[in-house]
Amino acid sequence: MSAIEKSLLDRWRLILVLLWLAACVWLLWQRWGAIHWFALGDTDDNMRISQVRAWLHGQGWYDLRQYKLNPPYGFDIHWSRLVDLPLAGIIVVLRPIFGGIIAEKAAVAIAPLIPLLLALFSAGLTARRLIDPRAYIVAAGLVLCCQVALDMFRPLRIDHHGWQLAFLLATIAGLADPERRRGGITIGIASALSLVIGLELLPYIAVAGASVGLRWIVHREAKPRLTAYAISFGVASAIGFGLFASYANRAPVCDALSPVWLSTILLGCGALLLLSQIDPPRWPARLALAIGAAVVVAGFFWLTWPQCRGRPENVSPELYKLWLSNVREARPIYQQNAETIIAGLTIPVIGLIGAGWAIWRSRRDETVYCWLSIVVLSLFSVGMLFWQIRAGPAAQLIGVTGAAFLGWHLIGWFASSQRMLVRVFGIVGAFLIVSGIATYAAFPFLPKDTKNKAYWDKVDAANRRCPTLPALRPIAQMPATTVMTFVDLGPRLITVTHHKAIAGPYHRNGDAILDIHHAFDGPPDQARVIAKKHSATLLLVCPHYAESTLYSSRSPKGFYAQLEKGKTFDWLEPVKLPKGSDYMLWRIK
């Protein structure tokens, strides 16, 4: 064994930390300008920092009502405070030294990088357990090549998805743990923490839990993992609910860890614990008991919580038609452009191929059960892409372990060659293929939709410029009031100005979302009534902003379409903005 190989083997934790630090430096440098301009590009990122500010200014720990949207009532956000903790901690430490502005910029830059360390460590640990003690470097490198997933860990991406993805990789590490009790505890705690944050990964958590049960059915020696999982998942979920469930989430709601899901989890964990104690010696008996337990838990959920049988958002048909069905990330992958399809499917498919090969090679080894769990998760994640493209980051990270297996063996094969050119170019080429980077070379040759290109260039420009601090500065300098504006501009407006807005893109804010859609789609008099209903004194629009294209195309004679064409109304007084402003602003009489 060479000195390099020995260092890779003995100092793997230090090497992972150094790799993480190098990635942090690169990502911070890459996003430095955006950090300076506090360019929180996603509505959820803006809402997250607004929630943290409200908490630091005295709002209660369990009070997650956002009072700057839909005033004076506000609305209850379905998140928890768990992800607020690192953001608030960084701000509290740095604010006395550098001031509030610098402290917030540092928080939104640093906080998303923390779960990236957990993701790299978990992926590397899984590779060490299933592939080779030195293969962690390949798996960690592949995580950094998952561009769709990596976007959830970049500076400014302070929403909760990065943490949930990191806990998903920790769950996979638990499935691969040869120490059965420790693996069960890891899966249980990681699953509970993910659910405390939000329900986005609930399907993956259910599949991981089912794979633990199936492993016990076919391999009785897996009993310690099942027992540890049942206890840790149930206890951690109960503690997480007690510590983090907001006042609103203590009601039987369907879109968060509420009594609905907590009771179902506790019943399911109790059933698994009971099965592990009965532990029949023959697998058909274990299978029959597991099916019976699943029927009881499903029946309990179905009969006890009938309001949660459909989508957890529980939105009205009208809200789904006007708003939710138009959200891009809620559409399936086959409705996306060619680049998105290739980027979303490459690593998951490569991971499936690698995991399938791993099952064949380990068919006489106990690790075959770990690989089977990973294949089931991989197949499920690819299937989820054909439901919603938002499953892309999870599908990529689930595919990392199988891709690392394939890459490790290809790299080993090329490294054993006697020819230097084969070793060098073969190793580089193998990594480029399994990481999906090689597919990017095809992007320039993919068909482009050039229809109405000039129009969509205007839309892209408006999407970039309207949420910026310079564009919003003139509005921020006006006396505080309630502003009637687009749904997707609401969170940004309340974050970087002292104004309030009517709506933001959150399903619990559904009535206010419908009001905005009705206002811009309907006749001008209806818009005036809605503005008065919410006590709005300013009307703010950004022509060609993505949301505006929905109103102008759907209602060519509606209120927004008339505004865009320059029509005036006696109840709207134009407010002069600096030359070159992307906004149009009126005072509502």
From TrEMBL:
Domain of life, source organism: Bacteria
Signal peptide positions (record): none
Keywords, sorted A to Z: Membrane, Transmembrane, Transmembrane helix
Entry protein name: AcrB/AcrD/AcrF family protein
Species this protein is from: Sphingomonas tabacisoli
Membrane listed as a keyword: yes
TM annotation in the entry: 12-29, 77-94, 106-127, 184-214, 226-244, 256-275, 287-305, 341-360, 367-389, 395-414, 421-443
